[in-house]
From TrEMBL, chains A, B:
Protein's UniProt name: NADPH-dependent F420 reductase
Keywords in alphabetical order: Oxidoreductase
Gene3D superfamilies: NAD(P)-binding Rossmann-like Domain
Keyword Protease: no
Classification lineage: Bacteria, Bacillati, Actinomycetota, Actinomycetes, Kitasatosporales
Top-level division of the source organism's lineage: Bacteria
GO BP terms in the entry: copper ion import; NADPH regeneration
Boundaries of every Pyrroline-5-carboxylate reductase catalytic N-terminal domain copy: 26-118
A single GO molecular function term of this UniProt record: oxidoreductase activity, acting on NAD(P)H
A GO CC term attached to the entry: plasma membrane
A Pfam family it matches: F420_oxidored
Coiled coil regions in record: none
Amino acid sequence: MTSADPAAAKPAPKDPWELPDVSGLTVGVLGGTGDQGRGLAYRLARAGQRVIIGSRSTERAETAAAELGHGVEGAENEECARRSDIVIVAVPWDGHAKTLEALRDVLVGKLVVDCVNPLGFDKKGAYALKPEEGSAAEQAAALLPESRVTAAFHHLSAVLLQDPEVEEIETDVMCLGEVRADVEQVQALAQRIPGMRGVFAGRLRNAHQVESLVANLISVNRRYKAHAGVRLTDI
Amino acid sequence: MTSADPAAAKPAPKDPWELPDVSGLTVGVLGGTGDQGRGLAYRLARAGQRVIIGSRSTERAETAAAELGHGVEGAENEECARRSDIVIVAVPWDGHAKTLEALRDVLVGKLVVDCVNPLGFDKKGAYALKPEEGSAAEQAAALLPESRVTAAFHHLSAVLLQDPEVEEIETDVMCLGEVRADVEQVQALAQRIPGMRGVFAGRLRNAHQVESLVANLISVNRRYKAHAGVRLTDI
């Protein structure tokens, strides 16, 4: 290294574990009546976050919200998105593009967290589907050019998330995105849930493998009768 | 469940942690002079496994073997493959197809463990390459129809593997393949290395995301100044 090294002029790197306070933000969960969405909504609300679950049907959203307790509210997807600062996309892959297209305007400027895993299933189990855009997250980014799209929460067991007996879920949440400040909000949100760490794990162009790793976790679960998650070691 | 349920007639499921003894098998490491190959060879030999590293050049293989110690031998790739029971493929992705094609005959009947990660690099870091066959492992399976092709050892840090000061490497090795008995040998081999577990993680059609997850680990390493690995939780 010489004195002309451009790195020498840079400030000391920021502590990657120094994350913003997101406890005052409202989190919407689109597809919040599905297993993954319900589970995430439940965990976040139980941790003290204000949560609104969204559904195509206001009635279904309100029913699910009432079941979850912890102050969770229910609303039709558009209202859920409008009232939320952070919007988690937990809809089935089949409805992913259609749901997001319809919400493009109301999602302008919002922090969007895609947690959809495009998978197919046949007699041999689960396998990855490859969206034309590369991944569900990249599809979201293409459909929502004026939103702040990130990806996270792919590897959580809906069973553990929803089990009120489970106090902590020992797992890491791989958080991906293009803008560090956005991803750090998602990391901070993940860390609100006891046992979880929110870990930066790359740009959206590397979301496909994170999404489709769920196919492997399904194989693990079957073989080991488990609800497998992922921890990253050495960090 | 009714008495007609076919599962009722099945024997109790086998304990997934009951793995074969592979301590007497010879392991060849193709590309054993590269960082990943050297590291794996070193760890396995240090654990008491008989290891031969292979290279295109006998001389380079022998030099690297002498440096590694622990009884590691060096040989030209073909001899390495011929003398080994289990053959780990740790060559650069660029040379993957060519190397395997040339060894097709000598690899007939052998247990082949592909640990190659097809990645590209640009200014934004690492990204996944998608082999025509789906993954490096599936390319190996296509090129070696009479070998027993599996995939494993993708997420190990070559730095940690090669560091003699490191006694244990706390990580899981995701092991993939079509034939349970073959994959179990690979799992057992992984477990020879202190700190590692060999975990069944699906069929070869789900190898791509395991291979390309290394792009994410590279992002993690950069952000956290770490040598990140993967642990699976709840198993």
